[in-house]
Amino acid sequence: MKVVVCITGASGVCYAKRLLEVLKDKGVKTSLVVSESGKKVIEQELDVGLDYLVNLSSEYYENEDFFSPLASGSHRFHSVVVIPCSMKTLAAVAHGYSNNLICRVCDVAIKERRKLILMPREMPLSAIHLENMLKLSRLGVVIMPPIPAFYGKPRSVEDIVDFVVGRVLDNLGISNDLFKRWGDI
Ligand SMILES: Cc1cc2nc3c(=O)[nH]c(=O)nc-3n(C[C@H](O)[C@H](O)[C@H](O)COP(=O)(O)O)c2cc1C
């Protein structure tokens, strides 16, 4: 199983960091792609650098690298997670505008009917953002905005991040105990 993890320039790169940590712990192979804006948000929001994230991944590709295997539907990967997903990348994916590797691998996932999870982050959402999400949802793309639940009584930011990442892992079919589930509380 190989999961492609894409980081774009929306707030919330901490979710990608945690996802990569857990996937590595579980022995899941990952390919990492980070947009230029994503790199800037990593510098702004994380206490670790891009190198830390690259070291967590099994392989890393530049977003301009269309010679990457990820750019082709003939390459085998299980799923793509764009975490977090900017409104720009959301719009590009919704319109099949594959001008970088992240948009291209999303395009490949859609055309090959593979799992694609987008974690869009913006507030408030405009009608453009909502229409793009609706269009993609109707194509089978999973739209997972990082919205925490509070029934598990989170006590820290880490608890909130783990809830969101745990729900992404659930959707990928990867068992995890990152958060308290309703029914177990
Ligand atoms: C610190 C910072 C936070 C940002 N947060 C968001 C955000 O939450 N959502 C969003 O859609 N764009 C956000 N942006 C703007 C995007 O980075 C910008 O639209 C960029 O073109 C996205 O490109 P990419 O999708 O290729 O990464 C943010 C930019 C910066 C510098």
UniProtKB/TrEMBL annotation:
Pfam families per the UniProt record, alphabetical: Flavoprotein (PF02441)
Annotated FMN binding sites: G9, A10, S11, S35, S86, M87, K88, T89, R121
Enzyme Commission code(s) on record: 2.5.1.129
Reaction equation(s) it catalyzes: dimethylallyl phosphate + FMNH2 = prenylated FMNH2 + phosphate
Binding site for dimethylallyl phosphate: Y151, R167
Stretches assigned to the Flavoprotein domain: 1-172
Claim: Transferase is one of the keywords in the record: yes
MF term (GO), any: carboxy-lyase activity
Entry's family note: Belongs to the UbiX/PAD1 family.
Job of this protein: Flavin prenyltransferase that catalyzes the synthesis of the prenylated FMN cofactor (prenyl-FMN) for 4-hydroxy-3-polyprenylbenzoic acid decarboxylase UbiD. The prenyltransferase is metal-independent and links a dimethylallyl moiety from dimethylallyl monophosphate (DMAP) to the flavin N5 and C6 atoms of FMN.
Descriptive protein name: Flavin prenyltransferase UbiX
Protein encoded by which gene: ubiX
